[in-house]
Amino acid sequence: MKISAVVITKNEERNIKECLETIKWADEIILIDSNSTDKTCEIASAYTDKILQTSSNVFSEKRIKSLNLVNNDWVLFVDADERLTKELINEILLLQPPSGIYGYTIKRRNYYFGKWIKHAGIYPDRQLRLFNKNYAHITPRKIHEGVEVNGEIGSLENDILHYSYIDMEQMISKINLYSSLEAQEKFDKQKQISKTGIFTHAISAFIRVYISRKGFIEGSGGFFVAFSYALVSFLSNLKLLKLQGKM
């Protein structure tokens, strides 16, 4: 089967080459770029001439746009900070979907500051990334958008590598973006939060990841996973209060 690989980018010059190297086998590569100001598109142009610019920072909007551009039925979504292993590539290339199977989940191996985090509830972290566009649609969310398939879903055995945070600067930048999108989504859904709730929700998020999901087993890595979840919760609710005019 022919596969179109789609990558969403914004200022990913330090990631994009390694990402594209692992999907250059695809029959088509499409890049949806949010007006990068670095060398992302220059680097990507060595792998594809299908680079679309958009002013949107909403992930679901960019994914929906990409499905209108792909030429093949089967689509593979890959983020710029992800890498396909050789084993996963071979598994996909040998894939022959049986009748009625219109999507496949892939295990995602998350790395924080270079360390693979096996606990804290983020492994195997299965994601529906390979699917037949004719039987799928994108969930219309500003963040944590996903793919829903009308049909049976299979599971691939091998992992995709996800380098969530490379350093503290990148971590803070991503948390700021994610919390802003989450706050806007909560605001649109008329979610309510109290000033006290800002703190209790953040503490609850930390305890859930670090204690309940055994993030503590990972040492400092588990702490940073829990801390990032707590900080996204804190900032998104703080920004929600500001959007509601309560601050």
Model description:
The chain has helices spanning about 15-20, 40-45, 60-65, 85-95, 170-190, 195-210, 220-245; strands at about 5-10, 30-35, 50-55, 75-80, 80-85, 100-110, 115, 125-130, 135-140, 145-150, 150-165. The relative contact order is 0.13. The protein has two domains: about 5-165, Spore Coat Polysaccharide Biosynthesis Protein SpsA, Chain A; about 170-245, no CATH class. The mean pLDDT is about 95. With about 250 residues, it is α/β, with parallel strands linked by helices. The strands form two sheets. Strands 1, 2, 3, 4, 5, 6, 7, 8 and 11 form a nine-stranded mixed β-sheet that branches. Helix 5 runs parallel beside helix 7.
Descriptive key words:
single chain; 247 residues; alpha/beta; Spore Coat Polysaccharide Biosynthesis Protein SpsA, Chain A; 2 domains; 9-stranded mixed sheet; 11 strands
Helix and strand topology:
Layout: E1 3-9, H1 16-21, E2 28-33, H2 40-44, E3 51-53, H3 59-67, E4 74-79, E5 82-84, H4 86-93, E6 101-112, E7 115-116, E8 127-132, E9 136-138, E10 147-149, E11 152-165, H5 168-188, H6 195-212, H7 220-243
Helix pairs in contact: 5-7, 6-7
